[in-house]
Amino acid sequence: MAYSSIFEAAPDIQRERPSASHYANGQFHNLAQERGLNFADSLNGVWRYLTGKSPDASPGAALEVAPLTPADLQQAPDQSLWRLGHSTVLLKLEGKFWLTDPVFAERASPFSFAGPKRFHAAPIAREDLPPIEAVILSHDHYDHLDRESILAIADKVGMFVTPLGVGERLIGWGIAATKIQQLDWWEETQVGALRLIATPAQHFSGRSLSDRNRTLWASWVLITPQSRVFFSGDSGYFAGFREIGDRFGPFDLTLIENGAYNEAWADVHMQPEQSIQAHIDLKGQRLVPIHNGTFDLALHAWTEPLERITALAEQGGIALSTPRFGERLDIHAGNSTDAWWHQHEGGTRHTGAATAQGRARGEQPVSQTGPAGLASLRHAD
Fold first, then answer.
1. SS3 319
2. Residues 6 or more apart from 297 whose CB is under 8 A from it?
3. Average pLDDT of each block of 10 consecutive residues along the chain (381 residues)?
4. Cβ–Cβ under 8 Å, residues 170 and 147
5. First-to-last CA distance in the chain?
6. Which of 10, 20, 280, 296 is spaced 20 to 30 A from 316 at the CA atom?
7. Residues 233 and 87 sit within 8 Å (Cβ to Cβ)
8. Are the CB atoms for 309 and 276 separated by under 8 Å?
9. CB 134 within 8 A of CB 161
């Protein structure tokens, strides 16, 4: 059995009480109260996951990616980004490379033999990555923080920037404390030419049954002289997006979670309608949906998140880019809108009747808003 971090000791936050995040009784808390799930809810969720999944929850064949080489990356212009998988995004800003939530593992799981298996190979191998100025981590769940990936790239990373407590996990894995900066919500740091601000998110944390919310979760604002980018990490929809937009917007591009959603966990994962609303709140110019296409983490069909958000963006006049994994995206030019997910065996369109079937399984947005109601979601400028 491969190393499993479920046997680690939980991080111990020995510091002043954080001033912005809510920390009490050894746990971090969301700004807005979340709906709790009782034992019956949990059992029902497990039963539905085992028996109620879409027949198209996984593609019929391994997804094709656009292979990347070190030369491709070095020759690419500034203001470029590449989706490498799930929420792993490589950015080239001010001549340096920056990486979010690096997960190159075969499974998003504490075990090598069980758990959600990835649908595609990484467009570039870990060892072929260029020197990384900073790795930016949103939280410690397995589909966002992979121990093996962190250790494999550590020597080429200048700095790891994390929410409070997540850095303690990295130190426990052998990463030098001098290479780690841990921030509370609204705290910021400067790494080279990049200004990084940890901003609130509506989520939770933990890597075992006994360490829930012992570390903080965050979204991130990335600012250079040329670009403003927002990275959501994982989050339910909450009023904090409006405040982030008011403080730091408008953003040239937003990387917002769109996938692995369900009505049962709507407080901590957004429906596509809410992802669109978050983008509007943030004053985003272009939206790139992430947290989809790599792992089977919910009940919906694997194409559904991209289908739904594409339809919503078209109806609402939202500039959307959906690059295939490994494809270069220009942060300002906004190319890459091809519906690449239709080109794979087993991938079918999940609009219309198919989407209705998904909603009948309990995937209806909490807000009950669809494309026709998108205009009502917009706030006044």
1. coil
2. 108, 116, 143, 259, 260
3. 56 67 91 65 55 78 93 97 98 98 95 90 97 98 97 98 97 97 97 98 94 96 98 98 98 98 92 98 98 94 96 96 96 81 55 34 36 39 35
4. no
5. 54
6. 296
7. yes
8. yes
9. yes
